[in-house]
Amino acid sequence: MSLSAKASFADIVRQVYLRRATGIISFSDGDDRYYFQNGELFVDRSHALASAIQARLDVAPSARPADDLELRRLSLQVIEPALGARAEVRFDGGAGEFPDAPVGPLTTVILAMESAVFGADERRLMERLGGQDERFQNRADSPALQQLPGLEASMIQLMAHMESPTPVSVLVKLNSASRFDTLVALTKLHAIGLAGGDPASSSRARRARLRSRSKSGASASRIEDPGKPRASAPPPSRPRGSGQVLTARSLELFSERIAEDLKLNPLALGAAQHREQLADWLGRQADMSYYELLQVESGADDESLHQNYRRLARLAHPLHIEPLGLKGMGEALRLLFERITEAYLVLSDPRRRAGYDLIIGVVVEEKIDGAKRLEEKQRMAAGCYSNALHYLSEQVRDYGQAVQLLQEAVRLDPKASYFSMLGQSQAQNPRWRSRAIESFEQAVELDPRDAGIRVAFADVLEREGDFARAKEQFRAALNDMPNHPLALKGLERLAGRQGDDGALGRKLGGGLKNLFRKPDPSD
């Protein structure tokens, strides 16, 4: 791969990143060089910012925020001199003249986005996108998504609007952000492959059709739109959350009502059996939908909801903490009571229930042939995945809601990329790490050649202290991508680490059930 002259620095960075190329960017009027390995940017150790960058990279993954703002700032400082360069820019493929042990990788995915919009006004942004009639569709399966710490709100909305090829002019009208901010967001998504142009509707294709019509005598004064695009709704509003569905006062009232019920009609359940049921429920509740929490079907009527809520709220009320000797798990039980109350409020309200059903993809089963059913499931799974991105964005950060959506996505369409994102979301909560590992195992089984999934899996294993398996995953990534920088750095970081502390910890912990299986005189 060799690019030069007419291509700008931003264009070359974008192409190098998307093609995962290895090589060097240089300029005709200076000695500045930018080194890329498999699409990721590195700097020479002699660079003025090398020491500061290395210091950030040396921080353990568990201690570094997902969006390392300091590393992002340093990365942008590295490329700033090149963004305004007017000299001839050249990229030479291959690893010739590479420095020994370069420092990196930098936040290349962010750099590709920022360089694409650097210094551009509205006119230039529109030119870079190909014009207002150019159509774009989201590419939610792009590997770039796994490298992003989060997406801006305007990008999340655009991803939702681009389920089918949609013209830029329509996207600008649909998005809640300003016209300029929408163009910036779309250009950034396009720069990293999360928004792809529709070849059939590209400017070049339209010009070819126009010439063809002119030659055949057809009027070329107006080109008919081949079909009005279907624009999906933006991610639905959050169906749960403090201050939106269940206020502190509402929770208090529900708790008092159930407590009075329990005093008048105590549970006819032995302590040992009660603890066993709570253990199983608490162990699974984080992954449950509202329907599963209330143990009802998606078509349940109000009476079923009410009866099941009363039965389950009585079972999970915090009033049981002291009698069952569960002081150490009191907060978990309070959270469970809150979640089932929240589930009841959402599902018993037709408007909120409709919004929640939209989020998790509940649909009425129709008698359709197998191919159409499969297509519908895939569409629903993609919708769940797209909505999950909203809850994983930097502005929201609701990992619990994202996990629910991603679980529904893998149930409908078990894709490696869905399982990988599910594992990454589960790994954000230390209590869900074992489930995260299971999700990554599924992802690896479905796509064993994806080095990105292997590296993400290795990071979770490393945080769990399972160093032996982490090394295995890093090595497997290098088998498919020999120069993968994160895999190389991971093996370097784990050099000399022995044992499987994570597995030992899991054996000693014994799981939630063991916490509840304590001697009880009434057993």
Descriptive report:
With 523 residues, the protein is mainly α. Helices cover 56% and strands 6% of the residues. The strands form two sheets. A five-stranded antiparallel sheet has the order 1-5-2-3-4, with helices on one face. A three-stranded antiparallel sheet has the order 7-6-8. Helix 5 crosses helix 9, helix 7 packs antiparallel against helix 17 and helix 22 runs antiparallel to helix 23. The chain starts with a strand and ends in a 7-residue tail after the last helix.
Quick overview:
The chain is mainly alpha-helical and 523 residues long. It contains 25 helices and 8 strands. Strand 3 and strand 4 form a beta hairpin.
Per DSSP, what share of the residues sits in E-state strands of 2 or more residues? 5-15%
Strand arrangement, major sheet: 1-5-2-3-4
Helix segment tally: 25
Structural class: mainly alpha
Helical amount: 55-70%
Largest sheet: 5 strands, antiparallel
Instruction: Characterize the overall form.
Output: globular
Low-confidence stretches: 200-244, 363-368, 500-523
Q: For the terminal residues, how far apart are their CA atoms? A: 73 Å
**Average pLDDT metric:** 75
